[in-house]
């Protein structure tokens, strides 16, 4: 494990040294952030492992370990966003119907954008699994229980999961950054669109949007993205089970005879079982988790200094300690409550409570934690995500290019669908 943390440290440091890179694209531009460099470098290390010196090789066992570290490390980012949300709850509540109804875009946008493309490309029932959601772990469980992972629907949701794992953060960051640069959407509408229900994808999309805003607006972007992601995470499983999946099955029955006729059948390669088994990450004890959180926070402070120019003085270290403390308390409550609610919910609630107006010392806590940029904490998380990617590539290659295109359309749909609805409610037509 020590070699894994050393590699993550090197990746984070190099990514932050590269910094933000803007690429002009017509009237818009693409912003490549340190978190994307970290993801790409981590993935490159894993793919190049057979050709690297032994000291730099990343064996499959460490790739699985990086994947297991990813989820607890993500809680630091969740805590930071919760701390941002708490002080801005009055502003979030003022968004009203925009925040409420944009969730329909998240849950139906995947199907609206993805299903027609899937049928035009000749996919059959694989299209249902690939387009009824963004294909995170709850979606795998829903499809596995309803159809089985060896079914066409199972192959579709597995392709969506692997595409999101391997390319999701890069794709959504590039798309979000490009759309933001066009200036046609309110940044807060785009922020709500970024809350797709995946922590790493939300971090990447919100970062790309925030990088093009003023410092004050960047904080609001992070706040609204966190609020949207929390809603998507907490009600997403029930929404996809009882609304999104039945609606997608119905839409498939209506559209397939029209768009799919004469298009042929998709590849029927069996879905590999290894990636599915890998979803059950090894359980860490609380001492090991604390070490993971401390290391991730330390990596975040490196980026906070290199990219955002904030030296790790006493106030910054206090802010980091508060973030780690919120995560520890959230994890303890999660376990005491019998794991009935996701840990991200507990951590988010604690973060919001600490900075909610009226909470004792809320202003001091907000000041200390506010000196740590949320994007600095996202970079080490994406580094661990990158270091875990190579293990999924063999299965990914067997799933075919058409279903990858469909997955991109579904990911674009959940972002754009929510952003469009939020934009409408924030700026209704006259």
Key terms for this structure?
430 residues; two-stranded antiparallel ribbon; Branched-chain amino acid ABC transporter permease
Determine the structural class based on helices, strands and strand pairing: mainly alpha
Overall radius of gyration: 21 Å
Helix content: over 70%
Report the strand count.
Answer: 2
Protein name: Branched-chain amino acid ABC transporter permease
Transmembrane segments: 31-50, 62-84, 104-123, 161-185, 235-255, 276-302, 314-334, 365-387, 399-426
Keywords: Membrane, Transmembrane, Transmembrane helix
How would you sum up this structure, described in words?
With 430 residues, the protein is mostly helical. The protein has one domain. The chain is 73% helix and 2% strand. The protein has 19 helices and two strands. About 4% of the residues have low confidence.
What is the fold's blueprint, element by element?
Layout: H1 2-18, E1 21-25, E2 28-32, H2 34-47, H3 60-87, H4 89-94, H5 97-120, H6 126-131, H7 137-146, H8 152-182, H9 187-194, H10 199-210, H11 215-259, H12 274-277, H13 286-306, H14 314-336, H15 343-355, H16 362-370, H17 374-387, H18 393-397, H19 401-426
Helix pairs in contact: 1-2, 1-13, 1-17, 2-8, 2-17, 3-11, 3-13, 3-14, 3-15, 3-16, 3-17, 5-11, 5-19, 7-8, 8-10, 8-19, 9-10, 9-11, 9-19, 10-11, 10-17, 13-14, 13-17, 14-15, 14-16
Summarize the structure.
Pfam families: DUF3100 (PF11299). By secondary structure, this protein is mostly helical.
């Amino acid at each position: 494990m020590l070699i894994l943390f050393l590699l993550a440290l090197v990746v984070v440091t190099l990514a932050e040294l590269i910094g933000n890179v803007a690429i002009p694209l017509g009237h818009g531009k693409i912003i490549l952030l340190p978190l994307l460099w970290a993801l790409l470098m981590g993935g490159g290390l894993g793919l190049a492992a057979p050709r690297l010196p032994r000291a730099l090789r990343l064996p499959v066992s460490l790739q699985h370990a990086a994947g297991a570290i990813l989820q607890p490390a993500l809680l630091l980012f969740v805590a930071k966003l919760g701390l941002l949300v708490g002080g801005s709850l009055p502003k979030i509540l003022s968004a009203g119907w925009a925040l409420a109804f944009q969730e329909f875009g998240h849950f139906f946008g995947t199907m609206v954008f993805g299903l027609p493309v899937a049928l035009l490309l000749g996919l059959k029932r694989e299209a249902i699994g690939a387009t009824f959601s963004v294909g995170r772990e709850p979606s795998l469980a829903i499809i596995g229980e309803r159809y089985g992972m060896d079914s066409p629907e199972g192959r579709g949701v597995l392709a969506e999961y692997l595409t999101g794992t391997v390319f999701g953060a890069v794709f959504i960051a590039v798309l979000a950054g490009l759309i933001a640069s066009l200036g046609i959407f309110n940044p807060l509408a785009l922020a709500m669109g970024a809350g797709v229900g995946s922590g790493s994808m939300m971090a990447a999309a919100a970062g790309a949007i925030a990088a093009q805003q003023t410092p004050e607006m960047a904080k609001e972007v992070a706040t609204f993205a966190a609020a949207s992601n929390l809603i998507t995470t907490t009600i997403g499983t029930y929404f996809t089970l009882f609304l999104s999946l039945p609606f997608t099955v119905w839409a498939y029955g209506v559209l397939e005879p029209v768009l799919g006729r004469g298009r042929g059948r998709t590849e029927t390669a069996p879905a590999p079982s290894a990636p599915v088994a890998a979803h059950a990450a090894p359980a860490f004890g609380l001492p090991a988790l604390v070490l993971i959180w401390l290391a991730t926070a330390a990596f975040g402070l490196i980026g906070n200094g290199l990219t955002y120019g904030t030296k790790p003085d006493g106030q910054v270290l206090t802010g980091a300690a508060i973030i780690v403390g919120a995560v520890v308390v959230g994890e303890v409550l999660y376990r005491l409550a019998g794991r009935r609610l996701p840990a991200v919910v507990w951590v988010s609630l604690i973060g919001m409570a600490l900075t909610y107006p009226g909470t004792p010392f809320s202003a001091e806590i907000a000041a200390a934690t506010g000196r740590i940029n949320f994007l600095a904490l996202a970079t080490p998380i994406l580094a661990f995500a990158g270091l875990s990617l190579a293990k999924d590539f063999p299965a990914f290659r067997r799933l075919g290019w058409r279903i990858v295109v469909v997955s991109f359309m579904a990911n674009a749909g959940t972002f754009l669908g929510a952003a469009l609805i939020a934009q409408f409610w924030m700026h209704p037509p006259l």
